[in-house]
Design the sequence.
């Protein structure tokens, strides 16, 4: 059986914190599907197609990584894609409390899928898409916080 992990998130935008989680997890799985969850009623900040494009360009050399979007429940997406793991990153105790509840509920909904957490590298702890977006919105330089090659023009 192949070990397939889904790394779900909004990735609005994808940051070096997210990239680091994927880079570190790559040898743990046969395939990682980076899945951008979206809600047709809430569009997010950066266009969905751009978010997909940026993540694809970040990992274009990596054949184990797929990038896609989904709507609805993460567990349904996992089921449809035969994923047996959900990958998430943990920065703080606040992340932990939030992630714990979601992971335990997901386990109830789809017992065959385990959530795997990687602790963030210390230098990435303060990086969040929300703060990166705010810096960008106000004209600040975000190049240190997103993977090389991502040119954030909406
Ligand atoms: P969501 O909207 O589901 O919270 P995000 O795109 O904000 O999605 O994050 C996706 C995952 O990446 C989450 O598990 C989050 O905790 C993790 N993550 C976000 N920023 C970092 C970071 N700087 N370092 C490590 N993990 C992170």
Sequence:
């Amino acid at each position: 059986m192949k070990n397939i992990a889904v790394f779900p998130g909004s990735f609005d935008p994808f940051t070096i914190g997210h990239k680091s989680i994927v880079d570190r997890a790559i040898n743990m799985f046969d395939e990682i599907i980076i899945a951008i969850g979206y809600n047709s009623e809430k569009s997010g900040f950066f266009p969905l197609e751009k978010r997909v494009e940026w993540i694809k360009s970040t990992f274009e050399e990596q054949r184990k990584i797929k990038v896609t979007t989904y709507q609805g429940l993460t567990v349904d997406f996992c089921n449809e894609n035969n994923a047996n793991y959900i990958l998430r990153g943990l920065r703080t105790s606040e992340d932990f409390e939030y992630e714990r509840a979601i992971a335990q509920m997901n386990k109830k909904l789809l017992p065959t899928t385990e959530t795997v957490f990687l602790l963030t590298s210390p230098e990435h702890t303060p990086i969040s898409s929300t703060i990166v977006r705010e810096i960008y919105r106000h004209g600040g330089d975000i190049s240190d916080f997103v993977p090389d090659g991502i040119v954030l023009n909406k």
